Amino acid sequence: MPAIPILAISVGDPNGIGVEIILKTFSDTESFAHCIPVVYADLEFMEAQQQRFKTTAPLRPLTDTLKKGRLYVASIWDKPPNICYGEQSTLAGQAAFTSLEAAVQSVKEKKADALVTAPIHKAAIKSDAFPFAGHTHYLAAKWGGKALMILAHEQLRVALATDHIPLKDVSKQVNKSLLNEKLRQLHAALSNDYGCKSPKIAVLGLNPHAGDQGVIGREDDDILSPVVTDLTRQGLHIAGPYAADGFFGQQQYKKVDAVLSCYHDQGLVGFKALAFGKGVNFTAGLPFVRTSPDHGTAFDIAGKGVASETSMRNAIYLAIDVYKSRMSHKESLRNSLEVRPPKEKHKEATKHKGLKKN
Q1: How far apart, in whole angstroms, are the C-alpha atoms of residue 333 and residue 93?
Q2: Cα 47 from chain centroid?
Q3: What are the start and end residues of each CATH 3.40.718.10 domain in the chain?
Q4: What is d(CA 330, CA 346) in angstroms, rounded to the nearest whole number?
């Protein structure tokens, strides 16, 4: 494989802005200095979209010999979908799923080093083959693991203890076991994927005002606080629970490496108010790197050529950075565990004994 990572990219819902932002991202030649991108769709389809959006991405059919400076297209659709920008379509959902499956499979077979996913429409893609609430749950089920959703932008990182579930179910799922698991996952991601030497994590309270000492609910005192205390005693730098309403407004997030939110909107309203359209959705806890833009299919502007590629570009660069960080971490771990061959040990021991005798 080339020295730079190969990225497998799924196009998301064809009726959305996914293809447009992919083409715009790779019309900038700087992107090719750091990765070799492969899009899973159809070459003629991508060329037609390129003409529509007047982009200049150097499209090429996928071949065995990969070179820098090209946006490769793996033609995996039996028949490209008819595009109806901004409309929910079962056929578009099926095309999105086929693209996603092919991209994931390429990573699984080690033909690619990391996965970047363009936005899907959750209702359109829903089927017996995809009964999930989004990419994160699908990828966790595909690999038999437990995934952690993190929204990241520069030094702002917000992770979710629970993600795409109804609000009425949140308090049922937030327990000591879940929080312990998510906080350890987050700590590991900050160490291995972001290179934080001693990660600092803040936990947002479940209830308003973090329960106000039990006046507005007991969960913060009975569940969250004991987990924070226990992990702190074990040497992790974790603080909280903090009242969520003032946490972002007071810019307390600047004092930590990441924030764990109890539920989706609690953390992501703050994140998107500060970084919407610039952030990246990163899935920690998987055996491979996966990133995505921080927005959806944007049906309201699909096909108009006005979509910003900033979040997609940031997703590409974060995938590259995390991949390199993991490789560096593996290399340092391998070096630290390396054992010298027995003969070298014997020679050194003999030499040492001789010096002692003299």
Answers
A1: 42
A2: 28
A3: 1-145+286-358, 148-284
A4: 29
Are 113 and 4 contacting, i.e. CB atoms less than 8 angstroms apart?
no
In the DSSP assignment, the letter for residue 223 is: I
Residue 335's pLDDT band (boundaries 50, 70, 90)? low
Report the amino acid identity of residue 166.
P
CA angle 290, 293, 296 (to 5 degrees): 120
Across the beta sheet with 114-117, the strand order is 59-61, 71-75, 36-41, 6-10, 114-117, 289-293, 280-284, 148-153, 156-160, 258-261, 200-204, 237-242
Distance CA 85, CA 17 (A): 9
- What is the pLDDT, as a whole number, of residue 333? 62
**Sequence-ordered strand ranges (E) for the chain:** 6-10, 36-41, 59-61, 71-75, 114-117, 148-153, 156-160, 200-204, 237-242, 258-261, 280-284, 289-293
pLDDT band at 142 (very low <50, low <70, confident <90, very high): confident
Coil, helix or strand for 149?
strand
Question: Average pLDDT for residues 333-347, to the nearest whole number?
Answer: 51
Where does residue 251 rank: exposed (0-12), middle (13-18), buried (19+ CB within 10 A)? Answer: exposed
What are residue 231's phi and psi, to 5 degrees?
-70, -30
Q: What is the mean pLDDT of residues 82-99?
A: 96
Q: What is the mean pLDDT of residues 117-124?
A: 97
pLDDT digits (tens, 9 = 90+) for 36-53: 999 999 999 999 999 999
Helix (H) or strand (E) holding 142: helix 135-143
Which residue type sits at 160?
A: L
CATH code for the structural domain at 148-284: 3.40.718.10
CA dihedral 30, 36, 42, 48 (to 10 degrees): 10
Radius of gyration, alpha carbons of the chain: 23
20 φψ region: left (φ > 0), alpha (ψ -120 to 50), beta (else): alpha
For residues 113-140, give the mean pLDDT.
95
| CB 247 within 8 Å of CB 158 | no
Q: How far is CA 77 from CA 46, 138, 218, 268, 279, in A?
A: 12, 20, 52, 34, 30
- Is 3.40.718.10 the CATH number for 1-145+286-358? yes
